[in-house]
Write a structure and sequence with these properties.
alpha/beta; six-stranded antiparallel β-sheet; single chain; Rossmann fold
Length: 385
């Protein structure tokens, strides 16, 4: 079969058709999709030349942002594209998808990673998140709530779900600063203003400098990425606002050392004291390949939740981060949960295989011990059938 070179619209349509989460455009390779967490090379697509990628991406890069890419070699933006099959019939409603795009220069050429963001904000149930996530959104009125995880772990989707819960249930003023805006939150009970870097405001620093003067109840900072964004989040939380943010770190324990790294040595005690006073919860998550026998599910989240009780606050303040796993283990009745707890639940529900759970386990020995009870119960139930 002869290979061909598709248009950007065709590629984005195919993302929807095969339920791909991501599209990678790289010079010298055909377009690559990520489906159910795995990279897949579609058949029949030709390798892209430098001219091909330039042409494809020029279709979607906002003209006002092109200069930034030329200057820095990096560009984040979002775009709407009408990829619905119904567009062949003008009488049917159009349903545009939203895509988060990162364009970057590598080897002197233009490359891109494009993520498809579904237009509907998912529910806690559809995301398979534990009830404590909803409780955090419902019961927390001020302070700092962080969702952490590695790239591609679903942090943005979880945060959108939490914000939408507040939007649907409380009369608040929600202001977000995002790079870029992924999910559009349409006002329901709340007033919502979503500001996108590069379009609505030049930088996080510019947006956060005046955000508390905009009468917010809830603030969402897309990413805590440096000293200034962390300080803005903490200061807003200290003054009675509810602040949500994301952070790139693997688990709850590493969250605090990661934040402290943004500050000089002489400010470490200060920022730890501030965090201990403002933090309400840290939700860490990882996406795992689902059991292939479970129809309709590509990936499921393993979660870890840290709630700021007195023991947690003391550990943060004193820099005793290594004590946090033990605190979580001793506080399950309060809603806290470890990755081991979550993995054991996923295996028991047959959402992931034992092999997958072991691959992602913080400690295989501890998880193996937890799973013995699960496997014994499973064998007993099988014998009764």
């Amino acid at each position: 079969m002869a290979s061909h070179k598709p248009t950007m619209r065709q590629l984005l349509y195919n993302m929807r058709k095969v339920e791909a989460s991501d599209l990678h455009l790289k010079v010298g390779m055909p377009p690559i999709f990520r489906v159910a967490g795995e990279l897949r090379l579609p058949q029949g697509l030709a390798a892209l030349t430098a001219e091909d990628t330039e042409s494809l991406l020029t279709e979607i890069i906002p003209p006002a942002l092109r200069e930034r890419y030329d200057r820095t070699g990096d560009l984040d933006f979002s775009t709407f594209q009408d990829t619905d099959e119904s567009t062949v019939d003008p009488s049917k409603p159009r349903k545009p998808d939203r895509f988060r795009c990162n364009v970057f220069r590598a080897g002197g050429n233009m490359h891109a990673a494009i993520r498809r963001v579904k237009p509907e904000i998912p529910s806690f149930e559809s995301l398979r998140l534990p009830d404590v996530y909803r409780e955090i959104a419902d019961k927390t009125m001020e302070g700092l709530v962080l969702v952490v995880g590695v790239t591609g772990s679903g942090k943005s989707t979880t945060l959108a779900c939490m914000l939408e819960r507040i939007n649907a249930t409380r009369p608040t003023n929600i202001i977000t600063v995002e790079d870029p805006v992924e999910f559009q939150i349409h006002p329901r009970m709340s007033v919502v203003s979503q500001r996108e870097l590069g379009i609505d405001v030049a930088s996080y620093q510019d947006a956060l400098r005046f955000i508390v003067r905009q009468d917010p109840d809830v603030i969402f900072i897309g990413e805590l990425r440096d000293h200034d964004t962390v300080m803005a989040a903490v200061q807003a939380a200290e003054t009675g606002h509810l602040v949500f943010g994301s952070l790139h770190t693997a688990d709850t324990m590493q969250c605090f050392s990661r934040i402290v790294e943004f500050f000089p040595q002489h400010e470490h005690d200060f920022i730890r004291a501030s965090l201990s006073g403002t933090l309400k919860a840290v939700c860490a998550q990882r996406l795992l390949p689902a059991n292939k026998d479970v129809a309709g599910v590509g990936a499921v989240p393993a979660t870890e939740v840290l709630l700021a009780n007195p023991s947690v606050k003391e550990a943060i303040k004193k820099g005793e981060d290594a004590d946090i796993p033990a605190i979580i283990a001793a506080s399950r009745q309060d809603g806290m949960r470890s990755f081991t707890d979550s993995l054991a639940e996923l295996v028991e529900a047959e959402m992931v295989t034992v092999a997958t759970a072991m691959e992602y386990a913080p400690s295989r020995e501890v998880l193996s011990s937890r799973l013995k009870g699960v496997q014994v119960r499973s064998a007993t139930m099988t014998g009764r059938r």
